[in-house]
Design goal:
single chain; alpha+beta; 2 domains; nine-stranded antiparallel beta sheet; 32% strand
């Protein structure tokens, strides 16, 4: 009778300790769900974007500075709605063999822009710190602004990318060809001086 009693006590002890760890795991799980729900809630600045009228393309093109990180603006275009792209280079004819910075500005106003900027906001809010053999990516704060910064080397050509949201409205994407991320950080600093 005594061995059965000891077995029952052991089983009772094991199940009660499992229940305690299970309760602890449930609490941790519930906290993570709450944190995820809070991180995906749309803030008031994002809600205001839906009802804000987007800028016209010529108004958006006017946001491109004439010079960025010591490189003059060589061309500008509008490849998509609410979007302008400017190319900065010392070369008068920038191409895949020249050093250049491409700046893309997407206006986050209205339904179209809101969805895009909301997705970018979530992406930049995540903690990223990845490193590969020829590339890396990380999120960080730069001069009080949350950014996503990347570098990659392909066949001895340096590529870099920097993304952020300016004034809770504009998705700014800087892409460097044959330039490292330090040059893009300098370009971002210059762009931040531009009055939007």
């Amino acid at each position: 009778m005594r061995p059965i009693f000891l077995i029952l006590i052991s089983i009772l002890f094991a199940t009660s300790s499992c229940k305690q760890s299970s309760d602890e795991e449930n609490n941790v799980f519930e906290e993570k769900i709450d944190a995820l729900e809070n991180s995906t809630k749309v803030g008031s600045w994002q809600q205001n974007l839906i009802t804000t009228e987007p800028l016209q393309i010529d108004q958006l093109k006017a946001k491109l500075p004439k010079q960025l990180a010591g490189l003059p603006l060589r061309s500008s275009d509008s490849p998509a709605p609410q979007t302008v792209v400017g190319t900065y280079s010392v070369s008068t004819n920038p191409n895949h063999e020249t050093e250049n910075i491409t700046v893309q500005i997407l206006d986050g106003a209205g339904n179209y822009g809101f969805g895009h900027v909301n997705a970018v906001h979530k992406m930049i809010s995540m903690e990223v710190n990845n490193k590969g053999d020829n590339n890396w990516a990380k999120t960080q704060d730069h001069q009080g602004v949350r950014i996503l910064l990347k570098e990659e080397r392909v066949k001895d050509i340096q590529f870099s990318e920097l993304q952020y949201i300016k004034q809770n409205r504009y998705h700014i994407s800087l892409t460097g060809r044959r330039l490292d991320s330090k040059k893009l950080l300098q370009a971002k600093t210059d762009l931040e001086k531009t009055n939007f």
